[in-house]
Amino acid sequence: MEEKLIKTGTTTIGIVCKDGIVLAADKRASAGYLIANRKQEKIQKISDEMAITQAGLVSDAQLLTKVIKAQLSLEELKRKKKPSVKEAANLLAGLLYQNIRQMSMVPGIVGFLLGGVDRTGFYLYDLGVDGSATFLEDFGSTGSGSVVAYGVLETLFKKDMTVNDGIKLAAKAINASIKRDMPTGDGLDVFTITRRGVNKVLTKEIDIKLSNS
Q1: 155 is catalytic
Q2: Range of the domain at 22
Q3: Residue, of 38 and 87, whose pLDDT is higher
Q4: Least C-beta-crowded within 10 Å: which of 53, 55, 184, 185?
């Protein structure tokens, strides 16, 4: 099976808190009706102050993540200062725009949530598969389980909530998606982005045991 065919039918979440950003994602990667990986890492650190969630074709997500990490490092070397979160979002949006418009029989389909902190504050962006960059003031969700997650987020999100409350809310939203969205499952990862940088604060695997009926 080619890695190109492996899709992360998934749920990823980003939440803006008064003291940071919370990113969360499930751990299942699927290929059609096959569960290809139960321990997929869908949140990646791209700098000391920024991280992204991945939703889409695994191979494209991995390649674009490597490219944006390299681009951010190059920009810092050239300019002698770290790019802002907005600049990073625009760089990644440009990569996505070029990727989706390449002449290919199977165009790459992948989107990201980008969270980060810079000298001006905490920021969250939704990077669409078409190369769009949308600034999010409160929260966002991508993937096949996002409809379920949004129901939880819309109900329980509160402006100026703390990172600790954001972690609990993200876990509830991912858990709801796992229960209702088949491609979402097998556990969750939660990252925070604060003035101390990017940190993985929670990882949980779910062992599903089938019982005889």
Answers
A1: no
A2: 3-194
A3: 87
A4: 185
Q: Residue 195: helix, strand or coil by DSSP?
A: coil
Handedness of CA 75, 79, 80, 81 (dihedral sign): negative
At residue 135, φ and ψ (nearest 5 deg) are -75, 130
Alpha-carbon distance of 194 to 149, in angstroms, equals: 23
Q: What is the CATH number of the domain that holds 62?
A: 3.60.20.10
Q: Which tokens is 185 given?
A: 């499952």
Whether the CB-CB separation of 140 and 124 falls below 8 Å is answered with yes
Q: Which residue among the candidates 8, 10, 65, 184 is catalytic per the annotation? A: 10
The per-residue b/e assignment along 155-188, b for 16 or more CB within 10 angstroms, e otherwise, is: eebeeebebebbbebbbbbbbbbbeebebbbbbb
Quick: pLDDT tens for 130-170. Answer: 889 999 999 999 998 999 999 999 999 999 999 999 999 99
The answer as to whether 10 is a domain residue is: yes
- What pLDDT, in 10s, does the model give residues 185-201? 889 999 999 999 999 99
